[in-house]
Structure formats: C-alpha cells, structure tokens
Amino acid sequence: MSPTPAPVILIIPGSFSTAQMYYPLQAAMTALLPTQEIYVANLPSAIRNPPEQPATLQDDATFFRGLIEKLAGAEAEQAESNQAGSKAESKDGSRDIIVVAHSYGGVVATEALRGVSKQERLKAGKSGGAIRVVYLAAHVPKMGSSLEDTVGPPPEGMVGVGEDNFLRFLDVETIANATFADPDYPFELALAFVRSMGRHSNASFQGKVTYEGWRDVNVSWILCERDLIIPPSVQRGYVDRIAEQSGREVDLHVLDAGHAPNVTAVEALAEVLVKIVQKEVADQTR
C-alpha cells in the first residue's frame, strides 16, 4: 500500500500583510517536511492601490476559493490528457488541502470554503478539497456580521481611513508594539516591518460573512498567548462558539507568541503546523 500523501497547505495572510511575510514559515516547514507542498498568495485587499477600487471580502474569498479549487485537483485536465493518449496515471490526481488562515485571513477562509470542502466536492462528483482549516490568531465573525461589526471601526489615531476607502497606519510605533509583542523580538525590526506594510482595503473589513465554512471541515486553532491584537480571551470565544455550533471539538494549540508568529516565532509555529499535518495523515490511514 502506498503511503497517504500529505495534504497541501494553503496560507491566507492577515491584513496589511503580503505573502512575503510568510516565506520564512514556508522555509521552516519545508526544513521539517521536505516533501510538503506549501503555498501562500497575496490578498487582493492588501495589494491593491488607488486609483484601483479597494477589494471586498468577496473579492478575497473568490480569489482564494479559486486557488483551493486549483489545488484540489483537475479532473478535467486529467480527462483531456487521457483523451490525448497520454500515459498519465489513471488516478485523478486530486489532493486534500489544509487552509491556514491568519488574523483577517480567518474571515476570508470562513467565506472562501463555500463549495470547496472535500465533502461538498464529493457531492458534486469531484474528489479532493479542503479538509481542515487552521485558524492562526484569527477572527471568525458570526454569520451576517463583518469584521467591523465584530471588533468595531479602525482605532482612531492608529489607523486612518482615506476618502479612497483604503486604510493606512498612522501610529506605527504603537502598532509595532502591539503586533510584534514577543519580548525577545527587537523593536527596530518590528518597526521596520510595520513601515514596510502598505494600505489595506477598508471595504474588506465591512463585508458580511455569508457562509460559515468551518461547519464543513475539521478545525484547528493556534492561539497566541501574547497576542495584543486579538486577545486570547477573544480567540477562546471563537473556539467555544465553533465547537458548540459545529458539534465537533476544535483541535487547540497554544503558542507563546504575539500576533505574528510567522515573523517572531517561525520555528515554533512551523513545528505546530507540522504536528497538525502529521496527525491529519495518521488519522487518514486508520
């Protein structure tokens, strides 16, 4: 019997963050699992600039839903290859996916999972799909609520909302201290990271959640104990609500880190994610 392949990992960044901020995490995970496939892509809401229109939550969700579909497998491409007389293997090449969603990315993942979970794809006669979402220091608003409904408007004096409906950092020192709160992480580096971050769409924070994807997949949560952006008590509230409403236990992991362990605690975060992947593979082989 051939070994069960590890699920593909797709990382959804947090607000104001580019994919580049997660490259060290990719490298750390690859060092632990050399054959692991790991992908990260930019949020439309974090990379558009005026005079472009700010991306909405639906823009972000549609983009990442498309990536999940692409990674899940391509039955159509396989069929075309077979029709052309290729010697390709007969299996459909479909793959399972673990979505890792950081901060605002948790809102995106929750919405993006519509129709692309493995169970929903099976109903549609397809194979592969999302089998787990890992919320990393994330927000998960209730159905019909936006991130702004959940946490309020951007903090005055720290984040400004322009007439173009893009958000900009105002008080970079306070934001650096709050985002990279790990005591051993140099403040100069934290400040440099914040200054390197661009705009983010205010419209994305106002988009209402219309689908609760965590109902369709297994859920893990990585809670950061030093998080000053999304306090641990808030994260535990999300965990309790998901567990209660889904009827399934949330696989909880606690990390001694601030809000951005992809920057400040890369190796520790990589180890947790590897454990989640390895447990998923072990469960599938039982």
TrEMBL record:
Domain spans labelled AB hydrolase-1: 9-271
One Pfam family matching this protein: Abhydrolase_6
InterPro entries the record matches: AB_hydrolase_1 (IPR000073), AB_hydrolase_fold (IPR029058), Sec-Metab_Biosynth_Hydrolase (IPR052897)
UniProt superkingdom: Eukaryota
UniProt feature coiled coil, ranges: none
The protein, known as: AB hydrolase-1 domain-containing protein
